[in-house]
Design a protein that fits this description.
Layout: E1 4-9, E2 12-17, E3 21-24, E4 29-32, H1 39-45, H2 54-69, E5 73-76, H3 89-101, E6 106-110, H4 113-118, E7 128-130, E8 134-136, E9 139-141, E10 152-155, E11 160-165, E12 171-179, E13 183-185, E14 196-197, E15 205-210, E16 213-216
Parallel strand pairs: 4-5, 5-6, 6-7, 9-10, 10-13, 11-14
Antiparallel strand pairs: 1-2, 2-3, 3-4, 8-9, 11-12, 12-13, 12-15, 15-16
Helix pairs in contact: 2-3
Length: 218
Amino acid sequence: MPSELQLELVGEQVSILAEKALYWPREATLFVADVHLGKDSAMVASGIPVPLTASVETLSQLSSVMNLTHCQRLVILGDLWHHSLGRTPRIYSEFLAWRRRHIGIDVILVEGNHDIKSGRLTEEANVQEVPECFSLGPFSLCHFPQRCSNGFGLAGHIHPAVTLQGKGRQALTLPCLYIREDFAVLPAFGQFTGCGTVEPTGQDRVYVFADQQVLQVA
């Protein structure tokens, strides 16, 4: 399987990256969804013992794909943060340090349901927070998958995955990019996230991610 695939959305050429991201070369814009920083810290604060490494690793992975694409704009389609409990001074300091390393890149955050729980970012974060159905060229930036009147929707929220059936009752569930007629749903970018299985119908297109590779399966 290749590490990226090219496709056309509403007349624009975009690249599906194996890092579970979408890249729009003409506007040097990188799209990701559901980063969920601080989920590990939030679980520890709730009494669930998990390693406190996922958030830092997710930021490192985000830096890698930003450097790979040389993007000038990063769009996060909701849920940058998981919960206010997870926005500890340590994790927030790591996030601000990450932001300073990429100070020349514009960052847009579409407000997701977990961002509401987490509270607004400080001015130091230098992030433009926008409401759903925010227009960017032919695209409408959302968190919840939906049809928008002002463009082709790009969304997240459901952490889409698809189950592939093999011989002998074998089955494998993989994160996917799920494209419908009027909107596309990106997989969760964060390392410490679950998946919600989708069932494609009709003309839906599905691209799965596995072992740093991407493959169209529907």
